[in-house]
Amino acid sequence: MWIHEILGVMTGTAGLGDFLKTRRSQLRPDDVGVPTYGERRRVPGLRREELARLAGVSSSYYTRLEQGHSSGASAEVVDALATALRLDDAERQHLHALAKPARRARRSPPEHVSDATSQLLAALVDVPAIVLGRRSDVLAWNRPGHALFAGHLDVARRPNMAELVFLDPHVRELYADWPGKAEAVVGNLRLVAGRHPDDAALHELVGRLSAKSSEFASLWAGHRVKACATAEYEMRHPLVGPLTVTQQTLGNGTGPDVVVATAAPGSASQAALALLAVGATPRDSEESGGVRAAAFLQ
Q1: Using one digit for the tens of pLDDT, what is the confidence trace for 138-194?
Q2: What angle is formed at CA 200 by the lines to CA 216 and CA 169, rounded to 5 degrees?
Q3: Are 186 and 153 spatial neighbours (Cβ–Cβ below 8 Å)?
Q4: Which residues in 90-155 belong to E strands, given as ranges?
Q5: Is 120 found in the same domain as 60?
Q6: Do the Cβ atoms of 117 and 131 come closer than 8 Å?
Q7: Which pLDDT value is given to residue 189?
Q8: pLDDT at 9
Q9: pTM of the model as a whole
Q10: Which residues touch 130 (CB under 8 Å, ≥6 apart)?
């Protein structure tokens, strides 16, 4: 399989066509009130002409869009297709992003943690927090964040969280519902790919994960997108045992995001997080003044 086939061709009309074809095949006629009159169908999804009719466009024009032979679909047409496909808000925005003209892949400048984000991370002494770049690269984490998400790794490492979820046995075991976590990771990467179709490093990450994980490749081919602003996960931590945390992503989508993990007040999970924070706290000379605060920013 060629690498552009593995990636789903994240740029240009082919990316739009792949998304339309996949989502059309996942929508059954009964879902949208299309009569089948008892006929036997070779595939369960909608036919091209049926989706075109629902969207109010010609069958020939829709076919050109899906086959990647047409570009520059208007916002009105994209909205009509999104409505016909019953896309949610995140999926609709993703479709609009895919409909934009193709751009040549390029190497993006390195992502950095701003001074304000560094100060926030240092202030979150007892709350697990990590700073993620748009490709899920760990740019920084405080000690509780490192202890919760990747305590088996050296604190100085800067791994990619998507790679850890799919390729690291420890992180895979960490999530009780690993398939749900995996779907969230891929859904978020799909959103990023739509927003940054020219990101060469993202292309490389997707290609690497697809080659090393058949589960990732299968999920990527499904073209599901998912915004992960807030999600609840059951975790099985090797040091503090089972706990349920709410992971919240703090950011505006234009730069690195801060991901924090909290638990319900008074719950056993909150006690587990507090115990984990105590175990991650530096001792001795690091306990004094500004040195202690700076030590949390790793």
Answers
A1: 999 999 999 999 999 999 999 999 999 999 999 999 999 999 999 999 999 998 988
A2: 30
A3: no
A4: 129-132, 138-141
A5: no
A6: yes
A7: 92
A8: 45
A9: 0.79
A10: 138, 140, 141, 142, 145, 146, 149, 161, 258, 259
Query: Comparing C-alpha atoms, which of 149, 103, 102 is closest to residue 247?
Result: 149
Torsion, Cα 95 101 102 108, to 10 degrees, reads -80
- Cα(119)–Cα(260) distance, rounded to whole angstroms? 14
Q: Which amino acid is at 170?
A: H
> In the chain, how long is the greatest CA-to-CA distance?
78
Q: What is the pLDDT of residue 38?
A: 60
Q: Do 59 and 128 share a domain, yes or no?
A: no
Ramachandran angles phi, psi of 9, nearest 5°: 50, 85
Task: Judge whether 93 lies within some domain.
Answer: yes
Low-confidence ranges of the chain (pLDDT < 70): 1-14, 37-38, 102-105, 252-255, 281-298
- Identify which of 51, 250, 154, 264 has the alpha carbon closest to the alpha carbon of residue 61: 51
Query: 81: closest CA among 61, 108, 101, 67?
Result: 61
> Which CATH number covers residue 75?
1.10.260.40
Say what the pLDDT of residue 105 is: 66
For residues 276 and 270, what is the distance between their CA atoms, to the nearest angstrom?
Answer: 10
Q: How many residues does the chain have?
A: 298
Coil, strand or helix at 143 = helix
Task: Give residue 127's domain range.
Answer: 115-295
Considering the domain boundaries, does residue 107 fall inside one? Answer: no
Q: Which structure tokens are listed for 278?
A: 């105590």
What is residue 13's predicted lDDT score, i.e. its pLDDT? 56
Domain-terminating residue out of 98, 127, 158:
98
Lay out the sheet containing 230-237: strands in order across.
Answer: 138-141, 129-132, 257-262, 241-250, 230-237
Residue 74 CB neighbour total at 10 angstroms: 9
130 and 275, same domain (yes or no):
yes
CA proximity to 76, closest of 60, 55, 61: 55
Is residue 110 a part of any domain in this protein? no
- Cβ of 223: how many Cβ atoms within 10 Å? 22
